[in-house]
Amino acid sequence: MTTPQSPGGSTSGDAPQDERAPQYIYGVTRSGAALPGDVLGLDDKPVTLVEDGGVCAAIVSDLPQGRALGERADLVAHQRVLNALVDAGTVVLPFRFGAALADRAAVEKELLAGNSERFGQILEQLDGMVELRVKATYVQDAVLREIMTGDPEIAELSQRLREVPPDAADAVYYDRIRLGELIAQTMERMREADGQTLLDGAAPAAEAAVTKTPAREEDVLDASFLVRADKRAEFEQAVDKLATDHGERVKVRLIGPLPPYDFVPEE
Amino acid sequence: MTGPIAQQTSGTNQVQRGGSGSGLADVVDLILEKGLVIDLYARVSLVGIEILTVDVRIVVASVDTYLRFAEAVNRLDIAHDGTSQGLPEFVGGMQESGAKKKTRGALEGAQERLKETFGGDEDSDEEKQSARRRSSRKKEDEES
């Protein structure tokens, strides 16, 4: 059984659907879920559900033909489709970018038929939750000042290098590297403590948290939180408070709600 | 893409919001590294999808980084007060740093790919040219 349209859902798929067209898969949701009416997929193709009569439905669109995926617009489209469901309060199990199957029948038989129960369990766990991501970065000048005033060796070296005329800078190249290295080491020690403080401040209102390795030296924390919809305000208040309390030296950003990418069981 | 994150509210202690329309940079690692993977990925190559991976980690003990800090501290001294700009704030995260910083070592390949993928509207001419050079070189290789 193939259900090309969700009941009461989108009517944006009124373009004739080719049952043989390869399908790109954005994620999985509950069968019968209402798709936001105006959301467009890759290459602005209409997004539809494929259902197999079980508890789950795959969120799909036709796969663009004649080119490889992976452009910026493709990633944006992937995110846009999933976020449209999240924004509508619909539980969604996000797929990693790049999943596709031969046609709608394959989505039904190869994806849904064998996995419906497992998907259903995951959806059950994720229902009513959103992912919120907190990224915190040092305010560079404030933290550099902190480091300089807190470490005589750094202060001294910095002072000495400052007195070197610019045209002689090459002569102290290795001293400059040494200075930067000392700063980076100090910053890393600070990050451990500060990152933990921020994590501890945000975590109580969340059901789960995942921290990521910061990508840059100035990053203090990069963490995703699984937050119940009814506790979202509480969580955001906690993050607001962190931003206020530490704003002199740490910039806090809150990203989301996002599909619960970080809380999909890995297998 | 201009999401809310593009608007910096520097000088305030408020949390910066990136809503669901967040910039790609804030979610790209999730899209490419997280989310459900099932065995159907074996089929992906059949339909011509190029799967990218993001590997953005701190480049350990990078001389570039050290010099950057040394320079920042130097400028800090001159400025004295808190009004100096300091280093540009990398709000966009790895997207910008991947695209604009000269990188080396093992990450180079991945970041080159990312550069081509995400460069988009932010590409500098230099990057466009080097991308063109790369592709034309590839063409020559194929022809020869």
From TrEMBL, chain A:
Keyword Disulfide bond: no
GO CC field: gas vesicle
Residue span of region Disordered: 1-20
Listed Polar residues bias regions: 1-14
Principal location listed in the UniProt entry: other
Keywords annotated in UniProt: Gas vesicle
InterPro entries linked: GvpL/GvpF (IPR009430)
Record's subcellular location: Gas vesicle
Pfam families, per the entry: GvpL_GvpF
GO biological process, one term: gas vesicle organization
Similarity-based family: Belongs to the gas vesicle GvpF/GvpL family.
The protein, known as: GvpL/GvpF family gas vesicle protein
From TrEMBL, chain B:
One Pfam family recorded for the sequence: Gas_vesicle
Subcellular location per the Swiss-Prot or TrEMBL entry: Gas vesicle shell
Species per Swiss-Prot/TrEMBL record: Actinomadura livida
Gene: gvpA
Record's subunit section: The gas vesicle shell is 2 nm thick and consists of a single layer of this protein. It forms helical ribs nearly perpendicular to the long axis of the vesicle.
Renumbered residue ranges of the record's region Disordered: 1-20, 82-144
Record-stated family: Belongs to the gas vesicle GvpA family.
Recorded GO CC terms: gas vesicle shell; vesicle membrane
Keywords for the protein's UniProt record, in alphabetical order: Gas vesicle
Key word Membrane present: no
Bias-annotated ranges (Polar residues): 1-17
NCBIfam families documented for this protein: PRK09368.1 (NF006872)
Protein name according to UniProt: Gas vesicle protein A
HAMAP family cross-referenced by the UniProt entry: Gas_vesicle_A
Its job: Gas vesicles are hollow, gas filled proteinaceous nanostructures found in some microorganisms. During planktonic growth they allow positioning of the organism at a favorable depth for light or nutrient acquisition. GvpA forms the protein shell.
Main subcellular location of this protein, as a coarse class: other
Lineage: superkingdom: Bacteria
GO function term, MF aspect, one: structural molecule activity
